[in-house]
Amino acid sequence: MVMEGNAGSLYGRLNRASTRGFLAYVAAGGACAAVLACFVLSAADPTAADRNDGMLRLASRSARVWPDLAFNWRVVVATVVGFLGSAFGTVGGVGGGGIFVPMLNLVVGFDTKSAAALSKCMIMGASASSVWYNLQVSHPTKEAPVIDYKLALLFQPMLMLGITIGVELSVIFPYWLITVLIIILFVGTSSRSFYKGILMWREETRILMETREREEQSKAACAANDVVIDPSYQEPLLTQPQPKEKSALETFLFNLRWKNILVLMSVWSCFLALQVLKNNSKSCSTVYWVINILQVPVAVSVFLWEAMQLCRESRARRMNGNLECVCEASIEWSPAQLIFCAFCGLLGGTVGGLLGSGGGFILGPLLLELGCIPQVASATATFVMMFSSSLSVVEFYFLHRFPIPFAGYLIFVSILAGFWGQCLVRKIVHVLKRASLIVFILSSVIFASALTMGVVGTQKSISMINNHEYMGFLDFCQ
């Protein structure tokens, strides 16, 4: 179909626009947050952290609160919000942690740390079912898996390293600063994605109108030049061989790339082993910091290995006059582009660690920025989130950070939501021929997360001010 044939060039053309404005926005927002932090710290009582009167309460040292799993209005609201958040979050490729954490904290009543751990459980369930669905569908524009394994290998190690950094920063960063940073980042990414969605919608409208006009002209030409075909020639015309469509099993086996999956599993296992060793060591001890630092060479080595593969293959194709992209990202791989990807992977993981999400809030928009079509961006981001979120879930399980019954129930809800959300939205996209709907969903989920995190963070910060609580940076080793 003409619409599908032009899709690859359409999204590649739209996403080659300059991103300097967005980067300038992020830099300016970070600078404003830094200035605000300096102002708050200078106004804070420098001796507040040393008081021993029992009136000082540090938000990041909150006590564990685990409500029982019982049928009540709180669990019903959590089920509905969790189902919708998982369904739309996995379609957009962002997970939905920005919605799950406030919901579990405010509605159900979990403490912040337990809510973040349960959020990871929900993201893992929704991502796993979404990946299972994406392994059974074909690429909309060419003969390739809808999951881009090369981009997954490029981003996954840096994303996991960023999650480790984000978790540790969440211990020392004041709650209000985390809220400000997340709002700045989420508003920027959601507005950028929404703008891209509008451009894609307009271009899709133009292509659909041109396709409809060509069909009408073709029908008019056929009607004006009716030709009577001899019946003896009709049978050969009707029995010409048609392109063979793959069965569900053939599509599933074609979409699997065992070599890439084994590499991803190896990275996952290395990070899991290091995290378990770190959690079993004394905080801030020499062994603790050595294990922490060991994560850097693991992540960087895998990233550099995949980056060299992309650069080498891209250079070979250009020398042979082949202008086809190495992977779904329609950019020319260069050291500058790879450094940018490494930075964004770290940033996405750091935000995921601070928020309790899988890093998709950065990875989803980033893949669109690199030129991936919405279906591939969603499938690849969800695939990477499955590894990062499952790593956190296993780690939190060893740390006893969430109740098993509640986690099992929420994972079950998320698995159903992830599969049926993908199935419904992909069918709507196929019927309407509007892949930009996925971009609008992504933008809406990010904006809703910014709204909920903003409201919750503002409310909590005001409460801390009224209670004269310490609002500066905390001691990591305390």
Automatic annotation (TrEMBL):
It is found in: Membrane. InterPro entries: TM_pro_TauE-like. The keyword Membrane applies. One of its GO terms (cellular component) is membrane. It comes from the Eukaryota. The chain crosses the membrane at residues 22-44, 147-167, 173-195, 261-277, 289-308, 338-364, 376-399, 406-429, 435-456. Coiled coil: none annotated. Keywords: Membrane, Transmembrane, Transmembrane helix. Its main location: membrane. Signal peptide: none annotated. The keyword DNA-binding does not apply. It is a multi-pass membrane protein. Belongs to the 4-toluene sulfonate uptake permease (TSUP) (TC 2.A.102) family. This is Sulfite exporter TauE/SafE family protein. The lineage of its organism: Eukaryota, Viridiplantae, Streptophyta, Embryophyta, Tracheophyta.
